[in-house]
Structure formats: structure tokens, C-alpha cells
Write a structure and sequence with these properties.
- There is one protein chain.
- With 358 residues, this protein is an alpha/beta fold.
- Helix content is 31%, strand content 16%.
- It has 12 helices and 9 strands.
- α8 links the parallel β6 and β7.
Length: 358
């Protein structure tokens, strides 16, 4: 049996009830603004009404001011105030716009400095990059820097050579002719891992940290700034998950360190503008394995603390640090015996992570 259609009287009652409901539901918020409107003739001009609605009710972000909102609106949108043009002093952290590049119009190009070195692990200051080639600038490069094959395995007869095209040594005059008089600046410290993905394992991060820890002064309790970025020149972003390198652990250890991959390195190679690394840690496992055989670790190690870590004082410091980390129940063995000069450190890792690198 089909239902009868609503009569005109019933439809009118439904519309009237719906109108009463809508007016009653929004009565308080709809009537309060009207109470504050002036009843003078000038108050109803277009300019006055526009100024009232924008300046008197709405905030800069579009919310209504507290006196024109109900509890539900405050619950949903909140009642917090907007801070106007607050400038925070971050101290030495961060860089300004004019610090993103370096110029040497007078020809006083920065010289590359060797900070620390053992085969496969080299820390350098003021390194220039152009089209995939690293340039070390110094007028006496042969006396300052180690052999190229001890830093970079490019060109060596190995199954997994470095992806880097080349590493070249230039005098300051040659650098001006090749690189020009300015460069984009990559501030902070950068870790440049040249290893093939097959050589990246669960001890790679620990090796980075141990090599970088050579910059720490054992007599100074002030912490050193952590690396700003790690660049895997031969590893794609998706392929890193198939190695032993754990990005989550890396972010726990260094929350503000950026990870870049071969896709990003390709962009660096295609750039026609030189790039200046403030400080760089070159890591090449193949160079470490091949050059370590002829390297004298007792005499040829370059370290900022090489002179400090000699004699009885070094033994005393090692014992003091060992006791400190034993008390903290987080002491681990040295992960790389080729880095005897690096300070001890504690790292929350699995027991099998303490095995020496092969």
C-alpha cells in the first residue's frame, strides 16, 4: 500500500519547525554581534560593516575573536594567540643568506687542510667539488697529503671501486683557473661514503662515528658538532635498506644529520658550479683494505691528537675512559683496529656489533 503524500499544511509545519530549530541553535552567536553594532545611520554603511566584520571579529588567521565564539568553536579551533614577528636567537647554529657561498675575488682561495688520516678514512677541510671530481688545493700538496690511493680507490684494480670520477691536487693558481672565484658552500661537516652497497654493513655507522670522534679533545668536555650530512655516492635510497646500515639508529644517534644518496650525488655532478665542503670525512673501504698493507700505523697516522696520545698520559686517559664506560654498562670493543687514535665511545648496539671489521 503506497503511502500518502504530505499535505500543504504538513509541509508548512515541517518548514516552520526546521526554521525555528536553526534560529534557536545559532541564536546566541547570531544575536551577540548585532548587539554591538551601532544603530546610527553611518554604522550601516558598506565601509563600516566591512571594517566591523574584518577588524572587530576576525583574527589574522581567519578565526573569530574570543568574545564572538562559543565553546564548541573554541574546542575545535583553539584560543591560542599568534606570535607576531618573533625572532629567536639560535646562537651559533644556522647560517644566514650571505653565508651560503664563498668568494675570493682577490685570488685568496682557501687551501685544503689535512686534519686526520688513516687508509680509507680521511678528514679534510676546505675541499672543492666540481662535476663529480674532488679538488684538494695546496701549493705543496705532495708534502701535505697522503697518497691518493690511500684516500680514494678510484682507478684501482678492485671489484668494487669508488664511484668518484677522480681526486685531483691543484695549486692555488691552478684552482683559480679551473674553479673560478666563488663556490656554493656546504656548511658543517659532511661524511662522504664512497663504498659500494655490498660493502656497507651494520658497522658502517660505527666506523663513521669512530673516525669522526678523532676531532674530540680528550681534555675538553665540550661536545663537538655532529656531522651535518652523510652522502652515499654509490647507493640509491631504496637500496640502502638492503644493506646493514640502519637509518633509524643513525637518526637516534644524530637527529639532525641529513642523508643523501646517489640520486642527490648525480645532481652534484651535473652542477656546473663549484661546491665547497667546510669539512669532509672521506670513507673508502677498498682504499682502507688495499693501502693498509703498506701503512705504518705507528708513525704515519695523522690525527689532531697524535701528539697528545703518546706516553703514559695516553694510557692513563684510556684507563679512565674504560672505567667510565664500564660503569655506564654500555662499553663496546673498538670496531676498527685500524683507527687506534680515535677516542673511546659508547653506543647502544647488539652484541655482535663489537666484532672487528674485516
Amino acid at each position: 500500500m503506497a503511502s500518502a503524500l504530505l499535505t500543504r499544511r504538513e509541509l508548512t509545519l515541517l518548514l516552520f519547525a526546521l526554521t525555528i530549530f536553526l534560529v534557536a541553535f545559532n541564536f546566541e552567536s547570531a544575536v551577540r554581534p548585532l548587539r554591538r553594532v551601532s544603530t546610527s545611520a553611518s554604522a550601516f554603511s558598506a565601509r563600516t560593516l566591512l571594517a566591523f566584520h574584518v577588524q572587530g571579529i576576525l583574527r589574522e588567521d581567519g578565526r573569530r575573536v574570543p568574545q564572538f565564539t562559543d565553546e564548541l568553536e573554541q574546542e575545535i579551533l583553539g584560543d591560542w594567540e599568534i606570535e607576531k614577528k618573533s625572532v629567536y636567537d639560535l646562537g651559533p647554529a644556522g647560517i644566514a643568506e650571505d653565508q651560503q657561498h664563498r668568494e675570493w675575488k682577490s685570488g685568496a682561495i682557501l687551501s685544503t687542510e689535512l686534519v686526520a688520516h688513516v687508509p680509507g678514512f680521511t678528514i679534510l677541510d676546505n675541499v672543492l667539488l666540481l662535476e663529480g671530481t674532488l679538488y684538494l688545493v695546496h701549493d705543496h700538496a705532495a708534502q701535505v697529503f697522503p697518497r691518493q690511493e690511500a684516500m680514494l680507490s678510484a682507478g684501482l684494480d678492485s671489484p668494487n671501486p669508488a664511484v668518484m670520477q677522480d681526486l685531483k691536487f691543484l695549486t692555488r693558481h691552478q684552482a683559480l683557473e679551473t674553479l673560478g672565484y666563488s663556490a656554493h658552500r656546504l656548511t658543517g661537516s659532511s661524511v662522504l661514503c664512497l663504498d659500494h652497497p655490498s660493502l656497507i654493513d651494520n658497522q658502517t655507522l660505527v666506523a663513521f662515528h669512530r673516525a669522526y670522534a678523532t676531532l674530540a679533545d680528550p681534555s675538553d668536555l665540550a661536545p663537538i658538532l655532529p656531522p651535518a650530512r652523510t652522502i652515499f655516492t654509490n647507493t640509491k635510497k631504496l637500496a640502502l635498506s638492503q644493506t646493514g646500515y640502519d637509518l633509524k639508529l643513525s637518526r637516534i644517534a644524530f637527529p639532525y644529520m641529513v642523508h643523501l644518496f646517489s640520486e642527490d650525488w648525480d645532481d652534484f655532478e651535473r652542477s656546473a658550479r663549484p661546491m665547497l665542503f667546510d669539512r669532509i670525512l672521506l670513507v673508502d673501504r677498498v682504499a682502507a683494505e688495499l693501502a693498509s698493507q703498506a701503512f705504518d700505523f705507528s708513525a704515519d697516522v695523522v690525527s689532531p691528537r697524535a701528539r697528545v696520545d703518546i706516553g703514559a698520559d695516553a694510557t692513563q686517559r684510556r684507563n679512565k675512559k674504560a672505567n667510565k664506560f664500564q660503569k655506564s654498562a654500555m662499553a663496546i670493543e673498538a670496531t676498527d683496529k685500524r683507527l687506534p687514535f680515535a677516542p673511546a665511545f659508547a653506543f647502544p648496539v647488539r652484541p655482535d656489533w663489537a666484532e672487528p671489521l674485516s
